[in-house]
Amino acid sequence: APGMDALDDYGSDNETGGTQPAHAPSTQESAPAQKKGPVKVVKSTTIAVRAAPDVGAMAGVGSAPRMVANQSKVVNYNPKYEALWAPEEGPKNPFYADGITPGMRNTLGGSIERTHIADFHFEEQNQTFNTFGFAMDPSAAADASKGSDVVGDRQMWAEMQGRSVHQVSKRDAKKRKITDSAADKVLAGQGTALTEAEAEELAKDVEAAEEAEAARAEIEAAKKRVEDGVPETQTMFHAKQASDYQGRTWIDAPPDIKPAADQSYIPKACVHTWSGHTKGVHAIRWFPKSGHLLLSASMDCKVKIWDVYNSRKCTRTYIGHSKPVRDICFSDDGRQFSSVGFDKIVRYWDTETGQCIQSWKSKGIPYCVNIHPGDDNILVGASNKNVLQFDPRIKTDDSLVQEYVQHLGSVNSITFIDGYRRVVTTGDDKKLFLWEYGIGTAPMKHVSEPWMHSMPAVTPAPLDNGSPKYLLCQSLDNQILVYATGDRFKLNKKKHFVGHTIAGYACQVGVSPDMKYVISGDGDGRLWLWDWKSTKVYRKLKAHDGVCIGAVWHPLEPSKVATCGWDGLIKFWD
Questions:
Q1: The pLDDT value given to residue 32
Q2: In sequence order, which ranges of 445-550 are alpha helices (DSSP H)?
Q3: For residue 489, what is the enclosing H or E element?
Q4: Helical H segments across 338-427, by residue range
């Protein structure tokens, strides 16, 4: 108890330099007490935790908005969104016309501020201005619903209710398309200086000038065709109607066509004969994948397409060659096809309408044609020893994009292999070349042997996405040679088909879909059938009176074959 009393009396130590308490005795009276012994003094420390930093005075924060300087690094209060996005403001300099001090300029006309705008919003307003004539501030601070910061045609903005191009409905677009007229287009281009009557008159003058220019261009094109010797084209539709009640056109495959069986059978008799051509038929082609139509090229300078399943009559005739047609080829979907003739004309047709999409003048007589399914480029083998590649997408005279130059004689056949990435060509020089598609400077492979003869007809088999395993080549020494197109392009010496006589004729070779039978015509008008495995002759059929030049197996029906001959007939076998 006496120690605690002494501790209360001494509030501070001599070292601290503190003052004595008010009730403490004087120095003389307390001296005897200090002699009693040392007294330990315990110091007390108080710790205060402050979570918030020291900030400035808060006076006047709620009364008026405070602006934030762009150069400030620290903000000692919580500003509102409007203050952060407000434009830079300050007093104007009275000694300058625009009130901007020269030191504050960052452009010739004044000062430009940086702002943050999303790319999507900027492009949206840019397209809106180009389409409707008005735009809104794309920054996040703009209030589009109230019409603030609207640039351009405010009347159109009110009509569209502030909607941008991404917010316009189909009804608005249809309404705008109906209300647009030639006068509106002219007014949009000329501003608002013209009246509506003047704008309509100017629109009529512009339309008349465009029609005169188109007529002049057509006359010039016709003169050029006459000078080049390119005849005019025409077509004749022979069916009753071009489409059915469901809107399906006549080139659409019937929905009930399906593969009949997986196994092929030998045809036994002729079930139908088409006799529309007045001269010999030189080539026939099935419609791709379905085979419901048959295309034929004849020496009467005409190309005809025939119905196979329904009426079995000629559906359309294409007239565009002044000399016999040599070869034809469908595109991958069958909606276009190409034809070449002895008049040195290459034509690209629309199968459904009969319109000639484009035509070219070849440097030599074209003997064969093929269409690449990837880019629809047309490859033509001609008598000038070259393969010409045309691009129908180029609507000018410079559509010859590539020329394959290596043969020493006329090019007779063009075949795609390896997923349409490589091209195989044969010619009268008794050589076979393998090319990289699109590169015509040098071939990848050159096949030439002393015993080889010219191979005017080549058929790929089987047709699996442009990657056939074999090429069946009709050799003029009365045999069919087989080349393998796998890892190594080489001759299969174990397979060759003989017995027929085709010397001097480019008779087409056909193969059944299951690679079980091989067919070919000959110079005596007979149809020959061989077994693929044993290469033995199965049957010989008397097909035509003259040369049986073409024989093709149906792509879906396993036992149906079509043949054509120089007697002008096309026969359907089953």
A1: 46
A2: none
A3: strand 489-498
A4: none
Contacts of 482 (CB under 8 A, 6+ apart): 470, 471, 472, 473, 491, 492, 495, 496
Contact 389, 403 (CB under 8 A): yes
Instruction: Return the ∠ at Cα 310 (arms to 309 and 314), rounded to 5°.
Output: 95
Q: Mapped to the 3 state alphabet, what secondary structure does 274-342 carry?
A: ECCCCCCEEEEEECCCCCCEEEEEECCCEEEEEECCCCCCEEEEEECCCCCEEEEEECCCCCEEEEEEC
Distance from C-alpha of 10 to C-alpha of 23, rounded to nearest angstrom: 10
Q: What is the longest distance spanned by two Cα atoms in the chain?
A: 158
What the block records as the tokens of 32 is 């005897």
Residue with tokens 């074999």: 470
Q: Supply the pLDDT for residue 87.
A: 65
Vertex 417 angle, CA 424 and 489, to 5°: 70
Estimate to the nearest angstrom the gap between the alpha carbon of 152 and the chain centroid.
37
Paired sense of beta strands 400-405 and 411-417, if any:
unpaired
Check: CB of residue 461 under 8 Å from CB of residue 468.
yes
Closest CA to 472 of 161, 8, 462, 113: 462
Give CA–CA dist 271/468, Å, rounded: 31
Backbone angles phi, psi at 127, to 5 degrees: -70, -35
Helix (H) or strand (E) holding 70, with range, is none
- Do residues 330 and 552 touch, judged by C-beta distance below 8 A? no
How far apart, in whole angstroms, are the C-alpha atoms of residue 134 and residue 87?
22
In whole angstroms, what is the distance from residue 387 CA to residue 405 CA? 7
- pLDDT at 22 (0 to 100): 44
pLDDT for the residue 289: 86
Beta carbons of 327 and 341 less than 8 angstroms apart: no
The mean pLDDT values, 10 residues at a time, for the chain of 574 residues are 51 46 44 52 65 56 60 77 69 63 65 73 84 74 57 84 75 53 48 63 80 80 64 86 84 80 85 91 92 93 91 91 93 92 92 90 90 90 91 80 90 91 92 89 88 92 81 92 88 90 90 91 92 91 91 89 93 92
Around 136, how many Cα atoms within 13 Å sit in the side-chain half-sphere? 22
Tell me, what amino acid is at 550? G
List, in sequence order, every beta strand (DSSP E) within 67-203.
134-136, 150-152
Contact criterion met (CB below 8 Å) for 165 and 127? yes
If you ran DSSP here, which 8-state letter would residue 460 be given? E
Whether the ω angle into residue 462 lies within 30 degrees of 0, i.e. cis, is yes
d(CA 358, CA 316): 19
Measured between alpha carbons, how far is 64 from 73 in angstroms, rounded to an integer? 22
pLDDT at 28: 43
